[in-house]
Task: structure prediction
Amino acid sequence: MKKLQLLLMAMVLPAALAVAQDDPAPEPYKPSKTQFMIRGYGHAGLEFIKNEDGTESTFVGSTFAPIFLFKHNDRLIFEAELEFSFEENQLQVGFEYANLSYILNDYMTLRMGKFLLPFGTFGERLHPSWINKFSNMPLGFGHDGIAPSSGTGVELRGAIPVGNAKLLYYAYATNGPRLNTGVDAPDEAGQIHYDNFFDNNNNKALGGRLALLPFANSSLELGASAYGGKVGDRGDSLYADVGAFLYAFDLSYVRQVGFLGGTVDIKAQYNNTSVDKATYFEPETDTTFTPYSFDNQSYSYFAQVAYRPTKAGSNALKNFELVGRYSFLQTPEGAEWETKASQWAVGINYWLSWRVVFKLNYQRTIAEGGHDVPAGVTTTTDGVFIHWAIGF
Amino acid sequence: MKRIKTILIFVLPLAVGLFLAGSCASARVSMKTGAQLWGENCMRCHNTPSPAAYNNVDWATIGLHMRVRANLTAEETRKVVEFLQSAN
Result:
């Protein structure tokens, strides 16, 4: 009997205790102020390219670009992006940006670190593959491009409402571009490179952008940018004083247009790069060089239009987008990298969601000169690109 | 140079014309709702994300990220984030 009593007590007691404790209601979930997110994008595709040498087809890509966002509090955010890709059978890791932004007040944000430069809008806003409406960049950007994409330094930026309009400003100081004197790569003599993690001279490059959104609905944005500084190495007797000045104009117009039953998106940018005249040396043999010089001016531009029938009755139709783009690049006459190229691209995109897209592009590039092509020889290259891109 | 001119001549009137054609009954930002600002601003660079794409905490982080990256005004950001969070 006693045993039974004990057993009963052993069974009932914990339950009784549990009731007596009467747990307080669980606290509602309170997110911490500090937040960490991994975002980013990836893309891959199949490309067919036809030129004078014949036809090539290849699967390309799998670029994977993770973005790390760390919000320390409502004023302080850190962002960083790495870009993994496979080129020439080797893994390439690009360090795209890593910077801290601090909101000083309603009209001023301070940024420090490596950031995408607000030089025009393509580099800072349009290059991610889930945003870019084409499978590649317009002429003048990316490899062999003349426009800068990122810089290491500090920046002040902000937006000021002016009546119905809005004014955006950006002002920055960076290590600036670096001149390729051609000592290591003679066929790139006179080009400037933008990946300057440690300054090659004590001169900081200064740059900025001013943009006006004249209409109250923010549909139109017109911007002008400039960026300049010394590009030669410190102490280099030949090139230390060589400077560069870059400028750009950009336009963006995005609006749902009632009578067209959809959204029209127009983007355009013009870039101009001029580098002070300098003398470079063309190697003839291992020990003999021929000096030469040229007017070191390059420019490029693109204009693109996209139309998506966002007002269409059918859901499938709504997801299609028609796109067209023209771009042009002219590099200096007399340089080893002299080229004059123009390109038309047209395409149809299918958006599975706001950040997942299938792109089908056709593109024709007509180029004079360029890498491995003697000046004066014109080549025509046709390409068909089938790409997908996802932002996550 | 000629080609730039051709393109400008083509693009500018198109932009202005389309703007005039679309009825532009727009008020100052201070009079606009978060939903309206979201509709006008969040499609300028990429497609407009729907409120359901992220939870409220994530929207606060993205709001700050976009405020800096897209150079949105303080008021625009606050209204859009509040709208995205309330519509969630």
Remarks:
- Chain B touches chain A through 47 residues (CB under 8 Å).
